[in-house]
Specification:
about 45% helix, alpha/beta
């Protein structure tokens, strides 16, 4: 198939999923065309089946806000026509689903029919999308998509609850590529971070409010009071300054390292004993899956799609949002005993295997075929 993929090319989860999906489809022989405003972060190599089309947004003194949507729709029309695409797959509803609708209508005036699949990822539904300033457009464009997927059952339920949706929604969960995410032996790195053989706890995110990064610090403080440990905070974003301040205020900055954005996440995860994800909203929790693939158990909140990934008492533990007390107790339960830690590590890895790319990729491929066939009939 010839597939156009539209996504935010940044470090966010939807961009990562879209890029990894495109790469996997390309290595399975499909021709993949990324249509984005900059080169997707993980698309930094050559493959004969991968193409990148940049959406250049013209600047003009009249524009306070550059018209990204118009430039994107024009580019989609151009790429579908010129490359003779079979399908467009857009990630994150705002504005990609509505722009796809516009492109589809324009192409129809040229006698070209292009099926559109929209994948909903999270805050496009749970936070931003349901805001009144977006919801009529989100509802309309989901209903106009030829196929709709969500990354968890929970996100599907929330989509049906918040919006008046007339479409069937297919759940296709996030996936993990084990050729990249696996436990590497990084003893020298581990020694450098934890010279006294302390436990290593990790959090990775884009430090937005929903990630509750200050809760990570508070949970760690309680763990560290009971068991010598180190915390690695990976990523950057709006909450970072206040999060660092809290670590200082609690007198634990010597045990907490803020590493900023890192490419080689798998190496950091390989030396980790526990992953913390106390988010107040998480439609799936890709970062937790990356940790589990590297044999790292997860202590998380029980929101959104997290219970569909993290198995309570097996791959880690789930608690209510903000329950710092319980999360730290659960973390200690895992970390205090070598044998128990090892059991949790193995179970986390085993659970991650359920989301192996090799299992999930065919779900997308067959869904594309279904959508193409059903729109041919219509
Ligand atoms: O919705 C967001 O917060 C952003 C979104 C993204 O585009 O980065 O992240 C979401 O998509 C990921 C990939 O499907 C999921 O694993 C994340 O759980 C989800 N984030 C939230 O729901 C907060």
């Amino acid at each position: 198939m010839k597939i156009g993929i539209v996504c935010y090319p940044t470090f966010g989860g939807s961009g990562v999923v879209a890029t990894e999906l495109g790469k996997a489809l390309a290595s399975n022989g499909h021709e993949i065309h990324f249509i984005t405003y900059s080169q997707p972060a993980r698309l930094d190599f050559f493959s004969e089946n991968l193409y990148y089309h940049e959406v250049a947004v013209a600047q003009y003194p009249l524009f306070d806000f550059s018209p990204y949507e118009s430039a994107l729709a024009s580019k989609m029309v151009d790429v579908v026509k010129f490359e003779k695409l079979d399908l467009l797959h857009v990630h994150y509803a705002i504005p990609h689903a509505s722009v796809a609708y516009l492109a589809k209508q324009i192409l129809a005036t040229h006698g070209i029919h292009i099926p559109v699949v929209t994948t909903l990822h999270g805050t496009d539904i749970t936070l931003v999308g349901k805001d009144k300033s977006f919801s009529p457009v989100v509802t309309f464009s989901i209903n106009q998509s030829d196929g709709v997927t969500t990354v968890s059952e929970s996100l599907k339920a929330q989509t049906l609850e918040f919006f008046d949706i007339q479409k069937d929604i297919r759940v296709i969960p996030n996936f993990i590529d084990f050729s990249r995410f696996h436990n590497n032996n990084k003893e020298h790195f581990k020694k450098a971070i934890a010279p006294g053989n302390e436990r290593i706890i990790t959090h990775t995110s884009n430090f937005r409010k929903v990630k509750n990064t200050k809760d990570v610090i508070s949970i760690f403080k309680k763990i560290n009071d009971a068991l010598p440990s180190k915390l690695l905070m990976v990523g950057d974003g709006p909450e970072r300054r206040e999060t660092e301040e809290l670590a200082r205020h609690l007198g634990i900055s010597h045990d907490v390292r803020f590493l900023g954005k890192q490419d080689a996440i798998e190496e950091i995860l390989s030396v980790s004993d526990l992953f913390l994800m106390p988010s107040s909203s998480e439609s799936f929790g890709l970062a937790a899956l990356e940790a589990m693939a590297c044999h790292v158990p997860v202590v998380s909140s029980n929101v959104g799609g997290l219970p569909e990934l993290n198995q309570h008492g097996i791959s880690g533990y789930l608690s209510s949002i903000g329950d710092i007390e319980e999360m730290s107790k659960n973390a200690l339960k895992i970390l205090e005993d070598d044998d128990r830690l090892s059991t949790f590590k193995n179970s986390a890895y085993k659970r991650a295997k359920d989301f192996d790319l090799v299992r999930i990729l065919p779900l997308y491929e067959s869904y594309y075929q279904e959508v193409i066939q059903s729109t041919k009939k219509a």
